[in-house]
Amino acid sequence: MKTGIVFEGGAFRSIYSCGVMDALLELDFMPDYIIGVSAGAAYAASYASKQVGRNLKIIMDYRDDKRYMGLLNMLDPGNRSLYGLDFAYETIPNELVPFDYDTFREYKGEFYCVVTNVETGKPEYLPYTGLDKTNTVLKATCALPVFFPYININGTNYMDGGLSDSIPVERALADGCDKLLVVLTREPGYTKTTSSVTKQAAKIYKNKPELARDLLTRADKYNRQLERLDRLEREGKAYVMRPVSTKGFKRTEKDKTKILSLYNDGYNQTYNQIEAIRDFFKA
């Protein structure tokens, strides 16, 4: 049986997923297949490299560092992102909080990042190999509209994978997974709506009509994916984990007490549910 994990994105809400990942590592649980979206993919790299606590350390140590995140980064013509791209995706993993590329490359399973093709608006599923120390694929999957420039890979411009496939369970099943652990970053009962900010963002990309359409239709697609996920749960093909609550937790949350609390939610849930998770994959 081929086992898989799907990690939703959600910027700093994905610290919940980091808690799940760290507990799974301590409990010696590693699937055959990992697919992630946006921050879910970026953090999952440290799961595959078996580095317990690395993601939490980065957020706690660098959340307030202007080199990591700050509006001044958007004014830099060589950066044009809320995040300091070179600092976040190169300096940190290659120097400050080293990413274990060697152990990552020893992972025997498949590892994919969801990205959105700027021209077609369709999702693409790019492998992350750990061979590119500029981590361009991770930049692409995390490239939030407005707050990131397009990320070019082999002549094609990409943006955040969550625009086109927020919860890529269908891709995981198409890739041969029999059962999935799906880690979401919103609480039970959450449904997405199209905000006025999203509508304004779509206007910014009016010269990229498919990308603009993704922005305007994302909420409906997301809610349909949740309905599909409910069916997969009932069919015994998916085991879903969710935070207890993310209400009042911002995408770029500053309160480190809230950040640590959400991390602990994922960590503790995983320890409490590990027998149920193992039984699910055995059944």
TrEMBL record:
Q: Does the record bear Electron transport in its keywords?
A: no
Motif DGA/G at which residues? 160-162
**Chain location of the short sequence motif GXSXG per the record:** 36-40
Molecular function GO labels: hydrolase activity
Q: Which CDD domains match?
A: Pat_hypo_Ecoli_yjju_like
Output the GO biological process annotations, alphabetical, semicolon-separated.
lipid catabolic process
Keyword vocabulary terms for this entry: Hydrolase, Lipid degradation, Lipid metabolism
Which InterPro entries does the entry mention?
Answer: Acyl_Trfase/lysoPLipase, DUF6363, NTE, PNPLA_dom, YjjU-like
Residue limits of the PNPLA domain? 5-173
Catalytic residues at S38 (nucleophile), D160 (proton acceptor)
Q: What is this protein called?
A: Predicted phospholipase, patatin/cPLA2 family
Q: Which organism is it from?
A: Lachnospira pectinoschiza
